[in-house]
Amino acid sequence: MLSKDAWESLEFSFTEEELWIAVIGCDGNKALWPNGLNLNFVKANWDLIKGDFMNFIRGFHNDGEVVKDINNTFVALISKCSALESLSDFRPIIFVTTMYKILAKVLTNRLKNVMDVIISECIREK
């Protein structure tokens, strides 16, 4: 069972430092926005746009919801060979929005601290 401290570590408000750690932990050339901007843009312009990201992540923390458009995922099929005959001849590439990717990274970083307790409890229950 999670301790009180572990529960609280999952529930406290997100910090700017926590968000920045998530941003720099992502590959800058991936997670293209529909307008072509990627995480390198976010990293280079962090001082200008961090307020928008903090508002987004605080909104998620307070409401527990993500704006529908933030969760859009785009799938592209890239050919693996020249003779395309079936779906298996393609490799899917999945693009998620940058804000969604950063949110997922922040949540993942928090869960890393308690995952061993959660998993060991599940194993013991079996």
Automatic annotation (TrEMBL):
Protein name: Uncharacterized protein
Organism: Dipteronia dyeriana
